[in-house]
Amino acid sequence: MVATNYLSYTDSGALYGKPGLDLLLVETALCRAVIALQGAQVLEFTARDCAPLLWLSPAARFAPGSSVRGGVPVCLPWFGENRADPSKPKHGLVRGQSWTLESDEQHEDGRVLLRLSFSHPGDEVFAPSFHCSLTIGLGAALTFDLELTNTADVAAEYSWALHSYFAVDNVDTVQVEGLSGVEYLDKTTGFSRDRLEGNLNFSGEVDRVFEQAPAEQTILTQSPIHTRSENCHTVITWNPGAELAATMADVGPHYAGFVCVEHGNAFANSWQLAAGETTGAHLELAR
Ligand SMILES: O=P(O)(O)OC[C@H]1O[C@H](O)[C@H](O)[C@@H](O)[C@@H]1O
């Protein structure tokens, strides 16, 4: 592993006083970012002259095998509960696995691109084998290019999301624009179906899956956050609210500082990949 003038290798003990995970630190004229090799999880991203884009829980734990609460965990090869077997880990398996940094480069415009990859051999947790790579772009915006290949010799279904935790002033006043008129499944009421009219507000526990969602949303907080995606047809919006957060050791009273607006393809939008087929998606996040 070679450090460059924009990339250094560190760990969660050095950055957060909580040892456990290896981290990449990128510092350029355009931004500062922290990425965990476990799960290819971006933990922090702050563009120059902007407020931090992402929320990282002050109570986050940095333990091998479990996802860190905050940043952008990658949920794959299934999103949420495994519907065929709910005893399997929530949100798939890649977020708790160590990824490989395949390449890093800095473009003339100052953007840094990190490409991380993960290969699953196929096992009793998820039978099909697959290979995925995530190219993380770090400039004025934070970008993701996900590429997934079904390396199994049979067709397989994949669902996934980039589970972004955005830093907001207060969950009680934040609104999400760009989902009006879209149908959603409400996880708090047994996945009943409803349609949002107007902006989304967060009051108490909100856990909604919007299928066939538009490509752009704006999170209206003091310094608005813009999201733009390509080939991500599902948006999931989540905040546990005070009561549920109190039962989560790594959230607790800090729940008011974030909203999750997650982009991917899940439920009706899940990917059906033929043997050997590759497909991809793009996401851009910025204040
Ligand atoms: O606690 P986690 O496994 O990271 O999941 C956190 C949340 O992720 C998504 O937003 C789901 O829709 C929620 O139901 C879930 O509670």
Automatic annotation (TrEMBL):
Task: Fetch the SUPFAM superfamilies from UniProt.
Answer: Galactose mutarotase-like (SSF74650)
Which terms under GO biological process does the entry name?
A: carbohydrate metabolic process
Which InterPro entries does this entry report, sorted A to Z?
Aldose_1/G6P_1-epimerase, G6P_1-epimerase, Gal_mutarotase_sf_dom, GH-type_carb-bd
Known EC number: 5.1.3.15
Q: Which domain of life is it from?
A: Bacteria
For this UniProt entry, which segments traverse the membrane?
none
Recite the UniProt keywords alphabetically.
Isomerase
Q: Which reaction does it catalyse?
A: alpha-D-glucose 6-phosphate = beta-D-glucose 6-phosphate
The record places the active site at 163, 262
GO MF terms, alphabetically ordered: carbohydrate binding; glucose-6-phosphate 1-epimerase activity
Q: To which protein family does this belong? A: Belongs to the glucose-6-phosphate 1-epimerase family.
Please identify the protein, giving its name as recorded: Putative glucose-6-phosphate 1-epimerase
